[in-house]
Structure formats: C-alpha cells, structure tokens
Specification:
The chain is α+β, with helices and mostly antiparallel strands. It is 19% helix and 34% strand. It contains two helices and eight strands. The strands form three sheets. It has a three-stranded antiparallel beta sheet. The radius of gyration is 28 Å and the shape is elongated.
Amino acid sequence: MWNKIFINAQNIEHETAKATLIKMPNKSNYAGYSFWHPSKLVRSEGGNGYHLSISFTNNFTFKLIKKGNGKWNRNETIDEIELSAEDFMNEFEIMSDNIELANERQEQKEKESYLIVREPDKFDKEIKVREELKNE
C-alpha cells in the first residue's frame, strides 16, 4: 500500500534528476539527518509550491545519513540509521498534519466568496432628453 506524507519545501537540501536530498524535521528524534528519495516520488501539493508530498510503500526502508558540521568533515558521513516506513511516518507526523491542515484551510478559503450579487431595482420614470443634447 502506498503512503503519502507532506513536507515543507525548505526541507529540500539538494535535487538531481533522479533523487532528492531531504532533511528530517527539526522537531523529530533525527534532527540533523537527511535522506535521499527518488525525485519521481516527490511532488508539489499546492501552497504556492512550498508544500511537497513524499510517496512510498509500506516495505520501503529509509537510510538516514548525518554529515559532519565542521570545515574538514562536512562531506563525511558520521552516522547512518535505517528506518522502517512506519517509524519514518511517525517522525514526520507533526509536520505532515500541519501542512494538511493548511491545505484544507486554503481550499476552504478558495470556496468562500465575499461577492454579493444583486439585481438593480427597476427604473420606471419617464426620461426626457434636453433639446441641446439631441443629434440632428
């Protein structure tokens, strides 16, 4: 079965034609980690392009990597962790719920209308045109 979670576009670190490097949320147990995901499974979901969705199956395994923060080790992988799809969804739960709520609010706003349309009142007076305004 396919699953979908929502992320913010600010979590994208790098994109290539085949894969996208995505940061884990700051309010998760794996803050500072990131993972590669196929670009075909990362899609825009409204919100002026700031909301993206990530699709994956239940048997998907996510390999989280953590790079060094220093000048000399920023390109070195200092830690690797593998997460199941269920654990992965739990880590993104808060972010995904917030984005879904924002999308629902946006859709609701688009449905609402503040324009009130009324037909004009019937005008039953006799109209007189002054002589100097008439064409000859």
